Hints:
The protein is an alpha/beta fold. The chain folds into two domains: 2-113, Alpha-Beta Plaits, CATH 3.30.70; 118-312, Rossmann fold. Helices cover 28% and strands 30% of the residues. The chain is built from nine helices and 14 strands. The chain has helices at residues 12-24, 74-86, 107-112, 160-172, 188-195, 208-220, 252-255, 259-265, 282-291, and strands spanning 2-10, 30-33, 62-69, 99-106, 121-122, 127-131, 144-148, 178-182, 200-205, 227-231, 243-249, 266-278, 294-302, 305-312. The strands form three sheets. Strands 10-9-8-11-12-14-13 form a seven-stranded mixed sheet, with helices on both faces. The chain has a four-stranded antiparallel sheet with strand order 2-3-1-4. Strands 5-6-7 form a three-stranded mixed sheet, with helices on one face. Helix 4 runs parallel beside helix 5. The longest helix has 13 residues, at 12-24. The chain is elongated, with a radius of gyration of 24 Å. The N and C termini lie far apart (61 Å).
Amino acid sequence: MKWSEFSIHTTNEAVEPISHILHDAGASGVVIEDPFELIKEREDQFGEIYQLDPNDYPEEGVIVKAYLPVNSFLGETVEEIKDSINNLIIHNIDIGLNKVTISEVNEEEWATAWKKYYHPVKISEKFTIVPTWEEYSPVNSDELIIELDPGMAFGTGTHPTTVMCIQALERTVNMGDYVIDVGTGSGVLSIAAAMLGAKEVRAFDLDEVAVTSARLNLKLNKVHQVASVSQNNLLDGVIGDSADVVVANILAEVILRFTDDVAKVVKQNGYFIASGIINQKKDQVKDALVESGFEITETILMEDWVALIARRK
């Protein structure tokens, strides 16, 4: 099916009435590109990292977009939308530039275009991450292949914070270990731990959509007998100092909240791998880990990101 993208450059004041007009015309939803999003403060409930491109937003005003099916009535529908927007002036609503742009989008291309940027990537000495739709033959006999479907945007496994975590897991996980993965996302770190020989891996994520995505990837990589994933807030309710390794690829602010909890579930001489830390927060996280009874054994740097390997004393 082909779709028509209807884009209107307008004002904040007109966003709501224009959205109603587009809904009434048959659009199932709208996209609002507001430059205010670039400076908006956000909650980090799931430890998200927001990286918005200013080039995607207008310098002033707001762009509202909607998608309408291309059919024999499209021309009439577009004219009705334009007339309805122009009539907002009668109600003293500022419609700004009122610049309308219409373009055609192919649904199949729209749904899969991002996949052309995602190819097999060797991310460490042992691991190569391969998207499910790509064919790949191992280069070395001891190469470990993780097949991954990012699903609902939970990462391709190639972000520097994830790469550093997997490299750290290679250095700390031994055969028969018990590993906990906090904030698992796509489940890639749990998969890596299982492939490295862990006997048991427990993965947690607060977002139920992430839990579903991770479960699918665990089964895809045939490690679901070893690794399990459940919905949980960090380490709430997890007891016992029996974990050999705890890994968390989340924000520094979140790591700072539960270093004491990690110390309670990691056995003596066990490891905590903490990633998702921007360089400016490195020392703050290190201090918190030391205060909770860890010693920093290694600091890994990649681009502007830091991962820490800490051992419980």
